[in-house]
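Q: Give me the 3D complex with iron/sulfur cluster.
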Amino acid sequence: MRRQALDANHARFEPSRCFGDNLRNPARIATLTQTTPFARALLDWCDQHGRKHLPWQQNATPYRVWVSEIMLQQTQVDTVIPYFERFMACFPDVATLADASLDEVLRRWAGLGYYARARNLHKAAQRIVAEMGGDLPADPACLESLPGIGRSTAAAILALAFGQRAAILDGNVKRVLARYHGVDGWPGHSAVNRRLWELAEKHTPGERVAAYTQGIMDLGATLCRRSRPDCARCPVSRDCKARRSGEPERWPGKKPRTARPVKHRQLLILRNRRGEILLEKRPAQGVWGGLWSLPEIDPRTDIEEAVETRYQLRLKRWRKEPPIRHPLTHFELSLTPIHAEIDAPSGVKEMANRQTLWYNPQQSPPGGLPAPIAKLLARRQNR
Ligand code: SF4
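A: Here is the predicted complex, encoded as structure tokens.
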């Protein structure tokens, strides 16, 4: 896992700030521009061992860095690379992304998960075009005013694309700093998080900030791994408190355990005589917002009655299958597929509203499909 949970967007957009002073705290920063031994060692290591061939490092425009940073939240580099390349081929710049339909954007995102990221990218691109002259602003407050861009993501864009001194604190950086300084406690607690931000600010150098930023991300991803960190090859091992303790995996502190609730859902896989499957578009907000999915049937209702009431369709036959589990961030879904057929070519007064349609599984979907829905449909096709 490469990124912390999606950065929430709390800042308000004030256009005048986007073209002015871009320092969060100039007086403080002036006192912090000395390069610490940690940063020096990291920069030397980065020159020799840092990753330099990732697709978003080539032609590192603010737009490409932004898209890569959003994709890398919650997702590993190897998974992101093909998605990033396909996304760039379809949406090479902010204007193209802003012009595209949300369905098209979600289709290119399908499989990467955490779809709020794609919806926010699309919304932010439209705001950049409408309110910011079409270019990403080189200002932390303005960047943080955009949907889906929080403090760390804004800093990564500023450091990697604009070369500005800005400290990042993603999941990898939290792990490295918590271990190096022996910071106890779970980083989700505000006091621990605050301490890690202070350390991130302290180590971010005044010069070569892009190399340092890439270096600390690389260190966390390649040597200071979650399990079995490779301390023997680490450039900062000499002064690392976690390494000295002999138990580096003790840091960062674990999240207090809470049982994740399970939510039960029934999904209707309704097939017509032409072999098409009924899909519905999910509401924009909530789980799988804006994606195409299978209709949900309330477990307390009679299935035949529910289908007749909702779609004016009579079922020829139906059967349930054992549920599949799908973990989400805050709960787990238990999805029970109901395979059903109607004995008609389409059977409906063709769906007039654009939120419901018959989908031919031989063709590409009308938009993004959530991963478990795509899996259920593929499983049905392969029988
Ligand atoms: S010495 Fe080990 S624990 Fe410390 S930062 Fe390096 S890899 Fe991580």
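A quick observation: The chain is about 40% helix and 10% strand.
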